[in-house]
Amino acid sequence: MKQVMNTSKKKKFDQQRIAVLRLEMDYELAVLYEAIQNNDHKKKDLTKKKLEKIREELLRMKAM
User: Fold this and answer.
1) What are the E-state strand segments in the chain?
2) What is the dihedral of CA 35, 23, 14, 45, to 10 degrees?
3) Tens-digit pLDDT profile for residues 9-46
4) Residue 32: count of CB within 10 angstroms of its CB
5) How many C-beta neighbours within 10 Å does residue 63 have?
6) Among 58, 38, 35, which Cα is nearest to 46's?
7) Cα dihedral across residues 59, 31, 22, 50: positive or negative
8) What does each C-alpha distance from 58 to 11, 20, 29, 44 come to in angstroms?
9) N or C end of the chain, less CB within 10 A?
10) Per-residue pLDDT reduced to its tens digit, 1-11
11) Is there a contact between 57 and 21 (Cβ–Cβ < 8 Å)?
């Protein structure tokens, strides 16, 4: 019974984390769009790195 509860809690946590990552991704995409519009190369590169980390974490979580 304890394993079932732990599995249920982990699944709920994973779903919440995926939702948060998607919100973060949407925000970073908006920041990237703004950086492209303003020709801000430094901000654009920083945002791309953040988006790559979010992407990697999403891929890891979906693979589990």
Assistant:
1) none
2) 0
3) 888 888 999 999 999 999 999 999 999 999 999 999 99
4) 19
5) 6
6) 35
7) positive
8) 14, 10, 15, 21
9) N
10) 666 667 778 88
11) yes
